[in-house]
Design brief:
The complex is a heterodimer of chains A (about 240) and B (about 200). By secondary structure, chain A is mainly alpha-helical. Chain A is built from eight helices and two strands, in the order αααααααββα. Chain A has a two-stranded antiparallel sheet. Helices cover about 70% and strands about 0% of the residues of chain B. Chain B has about 200 residues and is mostly helical. In chain B, about 35% of the residues are buried. Chain B is built from ten helices and no strands. Classes of the chains: A mainly alpha (about 240), B mainly alpha (about 200). The interface between A and B is large, with 70 and 74 residues.
Chain lengths: ~240, ~200
């Protein structure tokens, strides 16, 4: 989907519905995906929200330059945060790697972090695998959902690149990992995925995704690449212990 | 809480790792959170920092938010806690100025005057905000009855599209369209006032 900077009436009407929480998940994903590309969409969102605030209370009218200034300051701080993921039950989802790459190229840079439960690691860093977001509402392939998995897949090599520490830990994590099913071919676009979930979840948090492992194995050229000094959009390994947060 | 949380679709996206959805929520709640913090913390200059801190803490805690309360209720609590924490730290710091440490009950006239000249309350800012309030109110009055009723029921009464459809005796699609047209009509008057000088700030 080419980035478009104009927002048509239909898109604005959907945005208005989103203000009221009355928009389906696919369309919500679309709107979020265009948030950074479309200044008109951002300005409309701000205007619609401001209208609601002012209708309820005159003293929320505020100075728009101040609002924009606040946002740019916060964005800078948000950019330094590891992206939080709320682990949830997952279903197997075919991932078209070629499509993913194409979609990912047009997607804005994003940062992913691997969350791991501290219970698993007393003395070693537990590494979480990819969280393949599988929320396909009606089985079709809306660009919203592949976009999420695409960015995941695209950033996955960086996980390996981000620290050989991650690679070193893998053998240990392998012990508890479910082996990948037979006969699944990476290049086929993953159509042969079996029904059973391929992700390992412990204590409600994702540990390992067999599909990620296969993807990483197929793209070994990224192993050992240093991620130092690389601009945003790359992964950080995160150690989470119970007392930190 | 009136019906389902209107923030639910965006919160779901945030939980899936979508930072942009979170930014959209920030744009929505920034003013309200700043107002809340401004009531607790005397020094107006500290409000944006505490507000930013609030949103960062909310962002980190999103995995723990389970939708048992409305998102804004949860965010509100985080804001209050963050402001309280900031106030405690101010009290402990001997180098902080008198005015920021003073509680809101303080009657000191001089420090009140000093505070009034800080960022959000310069004459220009106050004027800008009055102009915006005035444009919105004027535009609302100029709407047709259907559009005004639809947006009022939604924004002030907090009814869902379904409830509004029932009340106004029309299809849900019509409700959605009326609310949108009302917003666009008001936004038309607002946009000239909202254009920040260095465009594209959003």
């Amino acid at each position: 989907m080419p980035a478009d900077f104009e927002v048509g009436t239909a898109a604005l009407e959907r945005l208005s519905a989103l203000v009221d929480g009355e928009l389906d998940a696919d369309a919500v994903a679309h709107a979020c995906a265009r948030w950074r590309e479309s200044e008109a969409q951002r300005a409309s969102w701000h205007a619609y929200q401001l209208i609601g605030d002012v209708l309820r209370s005159d003293d929320l009218a505020g100075d728009p330059a101040r609002d924009a200034h606040f946002m740019s300051g916060l964005r800078a701080r948000l950019a330094m945060e590891p992206v939080v993921l709320a682990p949830q039950a997952l279903e197997a989802q075919p991932a078209d790697v070629a499509l993913s790459r194409q979609v990912a190229r047009s997607a804005p840079a994003r940062r992913w972090a691997w969350l791991a439960p501290s219970a698993v690691a007393a003395g070693f860093v537990a590494v979480a695998g990819a969280l393949m977001v599988a929320r396909a509402p009606d089985g079709g392939a809306p660009s919203g959902v592949p976009m999420a998995s695409a960015e995941l897949v695209n950033r996955a090599p960086a996980a390996l690149a981000d620290g050989s520490a991650i690679a070193r830990q893998r053998p240990q994590a392998d012990d508890i990992r479910r082996p990948p099913p037979e006969g699944v071919d990476e290049t086929s676009g993953g159509r042969a995925f079996p029904q059973e979930p391929q992700v390992l979840v412990a204590n409600g948090a994702l540990i390992r995704d067999a599909r990620l492992d296969r993807y990483l194995a197929a793209h070994k050229q990224f192993a050992g690449t240093s991620a130092l000094g690389v601009p945003s959009g790359f992964l950080r390994s995160v150690t989470v212990s119970g007392s930190d947060r | 809480m009136n019906g389902p949380d209107a923030d639910a679709p965006l919160v779901e996206r945030v939980k899936l790792g979508d930072v942009k959805a979170f930014e959209m929520l920030v744009v929505k709640y920034q003013r309200r959170i700043e107002r809340l913090i401004g009531r607790m913390v005397r020094d107006v200059d500290l409000v944006p920092d505490i507000a930013q801190e609030t949103f960062i803490r909310a962002y980190r805690a999103i995995p723990k938010f389970r939708g048992e309360s409305a998102f804004y209720t949860w965010l509100y609590r985080i804001a209050v806690n963050t402001a309280k924490k900031a106030l405690m730290e101010l009290k402990r710091d001997p180098l902080v100025s008198e005015s920021s440490r003073a509680s809101r009950d303080d009657d000191d006239e001089t420090s009140r005057v000093e505070n009034e000249l800080t960022d959000g309350e310069t004459p220009d800012a106050v004027l800008a905000s009055k102009q915006i309030a005035s444009a919105v109110n004027f535009a609302i009055e100029a709407l047709s009855d259907d559009l005004r009723q639809a947006i009022t029921l939604r924004e002030i009464e907090g009814l869902s599209y379904e409830e509004i459809a029932e009340l106004m005796n029309c299809p849900i699609g019509t409700v959605r369209s009326r609310i949108f047209r009302a917003r666009e009509a008001i936004a038309l008057r607002l946009r000239p006032l909202l254009d920040t000088r260095d465009g594209g700030r959003w």
